[in-house]
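Need Gnk2-homologous domain-containing protein's 3D structure for a figure. Predict it.
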Amino acid sequence: MQTLYFVVPCVMIIFLVLAFPNGFCLADINMKSGSQCSQADYSDSEGTFQANLRVLLDSLASNVVENHGFYQTIVGRKANRVYSSVLCRGDISASSCSGCTLNSTRVASNDCGMSKEVIIWFRWCFLRYSNESFFGDMQQTSVAITNETDFDDPSVVSEGLPFMTGLADAAPDRSYMFLTAILNTSQGGQKRYGMAQCTRDISRIDCRRCLDAQLESFRTVIGNKRRWEIYGSNCFMWYNDYHFYSNASALLSAAWRPSSCTRLIIGTTLAVSAAIFMFF
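Structure prediction for Gnk2-homologous domain-containing protein:
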């Protein structure tokens, strides 16, 4: 294993590359993209926090649809209070939004049962809850998913990142801070498709900062890839070579079904001076 050290002023970027021997592969259907669970906490001797959490999780699937795909709520009092946020991807149907939210709450209960800070990423929705308020507080922790061997045409690579940079700049000013776009490349009619979205509790300025930071953090990972996705705490980006967005039925009928596996990269951007550690 080789370790490289780079001193970077003002920003530290950490990448953890995890291999999935059982074949964690992308498919154009709704699926779990990643999760983060805090250490299990057994201090809730009376079970009040867990009771509040169950009430909260049971309320999300219906309320997120009624609130146009984004819903935040608080259940409980003082030390047993639970804060939660759920966001559905802007192009999916109401039933897909509700179904994805329900799946994410089940995953949270099964995989992070005694955790008090939880993030669950699905392709179509995002769930987060905590015993501390995070509403309106932009954070940069993100998960990037890409196929390791799915390199793009070199002549298209130089167009892809500028296209997504433009999308990241424009999305915050759109309704619901959600935007899709198509890149007509210079290579014989080839197209690339992009999407960007932010949670609606942050400002438009923070939305733009969040998307820009994702592109900067994962530039060397996604820059030459044909397909990739980035999921964060407050912003999200998708890039593909087929028209993947529109509605759930369109996603389910898409032709892409890769057989090779992907890797999961967790990146955190911090405003400090430090070194970058990259492991190979």
